[in-house]
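Sample pair:
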Amino acid sequence: MTPHSLAFYTDVIRSGTVLGAKPTDSPDQVTAILGSDFAENSPDGRSMWRDYGMVEFFWGRESRDHPWEGHHFTLQVHRLSWGGSVVNREIRERYGRFDRHLRFDKLERLLAKRGVRMEDVPDSNAPVYSLHWQPVSQVSVMAFRSPERGERRRGGARIGDVYALSSSMSAEQVAWYRARYGCQNA
């Protein structure tokens, strides 16, 4: 893992933004930051997401007459293991080369050195995945923990790899997960 790509992930987790693009930003605001190279999906006219490679932003609206409201973003880190060019040009220009795997333990240690702590959160994807949360930025991190019986992973995901980062996960959502799936270390 290059130090630059690790800096990208720590910047996202610390700030709750992607290059300054917030989960609540409009589609035009996100495009102004990440560029116009994206695939757009709007199956019903009330929800939309734009795929910028590894990064996806999501919006919703009441009706076609209402403006889009930003909902969340997700970094599909597992796509890096597929190879190819999945990192957005603007991100690559700022942070350089990205490795195919991001180890959660390495990321967590780097964050801890910078005074950023992650909390474990129980969820329905255990034990195949583990979920972690940064309360200040409200970014969650899902890590691959064990393969499901008979399942093969595309791209060679390894135990301990980060699967995805998402924002925003509120304290209320975390409390609901803990009530529903069992309390873990807070």
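The chain is about 25% helix and 25% strand.
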